[in-house]
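// run 5 | inverse folding | seed 20
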């Protein structure tokens, strides 16, 4: 007997659209799931580019209007991979149409938009329509394993968290202006683009939420060329220069609701760092260190070891007993960035089949948005303390 199949309609086809396409193509080949997926349609405004993306990534059809994509009878899941200024309108419309929704992070550009999305998601869930935010780093096996260690009490009472996300793709002042550097499109810069990831990852691994923050932001290059570039550096279009209206870097302190303090750093100006996402936790009974540049490893310190045997041990997270690894390769054969999205869609499809709410929910995305807004508010008020 063949399994049920759900059609996916994806809005957006650039960098993140390509990553999501790979994961949708892969998920049923790797995991034995009770439900299958079909790449029904991909949407984008440029008819030539979106048709080329459909052909390249295996989508059955291309649409130039996201509303038409939502209305398709063969689309049951809407995957949103567009800039943040469009998330709320697309997600609310898709949920109202009875489509399950997975939306890229950050959930929205503002708290107000995120509130509307979380409210729409709650209403839809009552009708059996599900939604999830695409915080893919939760699905790194090593971080999922770190969460299990913390939940099992292996580091004791949490004292301190250190989280950092460092990139360098904007160090060159001649790099062109893109939508990621325009507040009206992106909402914020490094704060929303990459700090959102480490806020969610920290809260996920700790199992608690941030209750207050104090931060500062900085824009190092105030204006940039309007033409040239590709990929993450795709230009906004036009000639001359344009103003950068978002932050290049953000640093902030935080306090968790149940105790423990934290430091966060997010920057696109860390010269020599390409995609360095790090998370460290220190408690009364042990410590954990993770670096995405070594994503298949976790450093674990067991405080109960005798002093002469003390030290962080390297755990190679490739065993079948580690999260998600039962479906992949023999021990010692590492995974990469793209696999986190395959795991994400695996969890989403399992929740749809079970009729449960996937995690992280739109409510979780809203909570992250509140943290980002609090950091921004603090930065605008001489780094004063702001409750989340």
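// decoded
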């Amino acid at each position: 007997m063949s399994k049920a199949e759900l059609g996916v309609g994806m809005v957006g086809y650039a960098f993140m659209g390509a990553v999501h396409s790979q994961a949708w193509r892969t998920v049923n080949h790797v995991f034995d799931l009770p439900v299958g997926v079909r790449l029904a349609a991909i949407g984008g405004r440029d008819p030539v580019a979106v048709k080329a993306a459909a052909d390249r990534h295996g989508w059955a059809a291309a649409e130039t209007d996201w509303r038409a994509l939502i209305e398709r009878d063969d689309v049951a899941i809407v995957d949103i991979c567009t800039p943040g200024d469009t998330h709320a309108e697309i997600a609310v419309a898709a949920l109202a149409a009875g489509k399950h929704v997975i939306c890229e992070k950050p959930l929205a550009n503002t708290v107000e938009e995120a509130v509307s999305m979380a409210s729409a998601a709650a209403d839809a869930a009552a009708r059996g329509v599900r939604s999830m935010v695409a915080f893919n780093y939760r699905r790194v096996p090593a971080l999922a394993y770190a969460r299990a260690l913390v939940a099992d009490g292996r580091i004791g009472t949490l004292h301190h968290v250190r989280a950092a996300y460092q990139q360098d793709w904007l160090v060159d002042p001649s790099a062109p202006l893109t939508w990621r550097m325009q507040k009206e499109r992106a909402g914020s810069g490094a704060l929303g683009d990459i700090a959102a990831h480490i806020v969610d990852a920290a809260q996920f691994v700790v199992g608690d939420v941030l209750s207050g923050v104090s931060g500062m932001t900085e824009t190092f290059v105030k204006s940039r060329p309007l033409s040239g570039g590709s990929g993450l550096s795709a230009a906004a279009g036009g000639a001359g220069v344009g103003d950068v209206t978002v932050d290049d870097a953000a640093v902030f302190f935080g306090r968790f609701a149940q105790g423990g303090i934290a430091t966060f750093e997010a920057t696109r100006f860390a010269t020599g760092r390409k995609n360095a996402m790090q998370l460290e936790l220190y408690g009364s009974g042990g410590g954990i260190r993770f670096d995405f540049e070594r994503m298949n490893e976790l450093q674990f310190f067991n405080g109960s070891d005798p002093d002469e045997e003390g030290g962080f041990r390297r755990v190679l997270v490739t065993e079948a007993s580690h999260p998600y690894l039962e479906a992949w390769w023999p021990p010692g054969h590492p995974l990469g960035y793209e696999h986190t999205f395959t795991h994400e869609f695996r969890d989403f499809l399992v929740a749809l089949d079970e009729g449960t709410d996937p995690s992280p929910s739109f409510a979780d995305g809203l909570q992250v948005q509140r943290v980002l807004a609090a950091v921004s508010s603090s930065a605008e008020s001489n780094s004063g303390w702001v409750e989340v």
